[in-house]
Write a structure and sequence with these properties.
Order of helices and strands: EHHHEEHEHEHEHEEEEEEEEEEEEEE
CATH class of the largest domain: Alpha Beta
Helix content: 10-25%
CATH superfamily of the largest domain: P-loop containing nucleotide triphosphate hydrolases
Number of domains: 3
CATH architecture of the largest domain: 3-Layer(aba) Sandwich
Number of strands: 20
Strand content: 25-35%
Mean pLDDT: 90
Structural class: alpha+beta
CATH topology of the largest domain: Rossmann fold
Strand order of the largest sheet: 2-3-1-4-5-6
Bound molecules: guanosine-5'-triphosphate, magnesium ion
Length: 431
């Protein structure tokens, strides 16, 4: 395997703004999808009455996705630039599938936000930006897409750019130095080559911008944490859990424990992008074989760690949250669904401990009766089923989450302190 740096790049944004089309275009321009395959997709798209969707089909592989013309689950594809090899995580924009977008965003180092020039900032543009910010996305590149539909008009581009900048400012997301690029994923403008249709734009192409992203940090010194995304049984091999290494290193011969399940086994081999690898480091999306663990012993949402330092299962945890929206107010006893890494577990607000000023961190009220949209607070949450979560000071990769209810993101937050479940193995803290 090449010694290139690896990074995970999520593609986010509102439904139909062109995320999958952009990924298909990027893979095509970098020689990762041959022309005849695009041609084949073009014919398939036309036969489904969906002419123009050929690039999206590179990522939308499910029949239902192709019929409905939208992305449902996240999909991963590898592609290379000069400096990096990327794992692109294409996420769905439709509001029904935000839970899959959260999994995708939590696996990514950086992200490209796609905003269609004709539509501008839309509900899931907002929701995705808010989630990207709280789920630890480092840098955001904003691709203002479908410039062909607005005649490559600079005034319209400036307008969309100003709207997105305002949104970034609202959530404190590097609004000063974000990179904006006018593109057409469909026509290929400013994706791999500078477009003659936008003489007024002198910045980088999208490919140049992503190649210029900062190197992701590599928390290899921390204990292994690998949230499980799927579990397969492969004949002749056995149980193969799949997921991304968040922290630490995974190597054959290691004894690993899956929490909360508690199953323990020995790692015998590791595969990435269909090739066997000698080890996996943070950022690597891998499948690995574990001897002594059956398919039914573990499931999506479990986290794999070293047997001698297993992931923490929370009895309760204290967290800092920011409320994005709520139909009324949040009081103790409220139970939305928490989404963290690959897990989804109902969690009850046990207490609302402090209301704080999100800009200064200052406490503005002790034990308030309720919090509402726009508020920041320190709260104690109790998972209704066993859940692995870690303090964000120790393991930030496993310490952030979103709270959702009735198809809406209510809040996002980070974990301050975990009270481990009695009986679950407590992980040793480094002195
Ligand atoms: P979800 O995954 O469902 O959120 O949608 P998406 O953001 O992946 O959008 P997708 O790539 O599926 O594209 C939606 C539609 O927009 C398709 O018909 C594309 O052909 C069209 N489209 C995407 N990019 C462009 C573009 O640059 N110009 C034009 N004219 N159409 C585009
Ligand atoms: Mg899509």
């Amino acid at each position: 395997m090449a010694a290139k740096l690896h990074q995970n790049l999520a593609i986010i944004g509102h439904v139909d703004h062109g995320k999958s089309t952009l990924v298909g275009r990027l893979l095509f321009e970098t020689g990762n999808v041959p022309e005849h395959i695009i041609e084949q997709y073009r014919e398939e798209a036309e036969s489904r009455g969906k002419g123009g969707w050929e690039f999206a089909y590179v990522m939308d592989n499910l029949a239902e996705e192709r019929d409905r013309g939208l992305t449902i689950d996240i999909a991963h594809k590898r592609f290379d630039t000069e400096k990096y090899f990327f794992t692109i995580v294409d996420t769905p924009g439709h509001r029904d599938f935000v839970k899959n977008m959260i999994t995708g965003a939590s696996q990514a180092d950086n992200a490209v936000l796609v905003v269609a020039a004709d539509d501008g900032v839309a509900p899931q543009t907002r929701e995705h930006v808010f989630l990207a910010r709280t789920l630890g996305i480092g840098e955001l590149i904003i691709a203002v897409n479908k410039m062909d539909m607005v005649d490559y008009d600079q005034a319209r581009y400036d307008e969309v750019r100003a709207d997105v900048s305002k949104l970034l400012k609202q959530v404190n997301f590097r609004s000063d130095d974000a990179t904006f690029i006018p593109i057409s994923a469909f026509e290929g403008d400013n994706v791999a080559e500078h477009s003659e249709h936008t003489p007024w734009y002198s910045g980088p192409t999208l490919l140049e911008a992503i190649d210029d992203l900062p190197e992701p940090e590599m928390p290899t010194e921390a204990p292994l944490r690998l949230p499980i995304q799927d579990v397969y049984t492969i004949s002749g091999i056995g149980t193969v859990p799949v997921g991304r290494v968040e922290t630490g290193v995974l190597e054959p011969g290691m004894s690993v424990t899956f929490m909360p399940s508690g199953a323990t086994g020995e790692v015998t081999s590791i595969e990435m992008h269909h090739e066997e690898v000698p080890k996996a480091v943070p950022g690597d999306n891998v499948g690995f074989n574990v001897r002594g663990v059956g398919k039914d012993d573990i499931k999506r949402g479990d986290v794999c760690g070293p047997a001698e330092e297993p992931p923490t299962v929370a009895e309760t945890f204290q967290a800092q949250v920011i409320v994005m929206q709520h139909p009324s107010v949040i009081t103790a006893g409220y139970t939305p669904v928490l989404h963290a890494h690959t897990a989804q577990v109902a969690c009850t607000f046990e207490s609302i401990d402090k209301k704080i000023d999100s800009k200064t961190g200052e406490v503005v009220a002790e034990n308030p009766d309720y919090i509402e949209a726009g508020d920041a607070a320190i709260v104690t949450l109790r998972p209704q089923k066993p859940l692995v979560i870690e303090s964000s000071a120790e393991l930030p990769e496993l310490g952030s989450f979103a709270l959702r209810d009735s198809g809406q993101t209510i809040a996002a937050g980070k974990v301050l302190e975990v009270t481990p479940k009695v009986g679950a193995k407590d992980r040793k803290k480094a002195a």
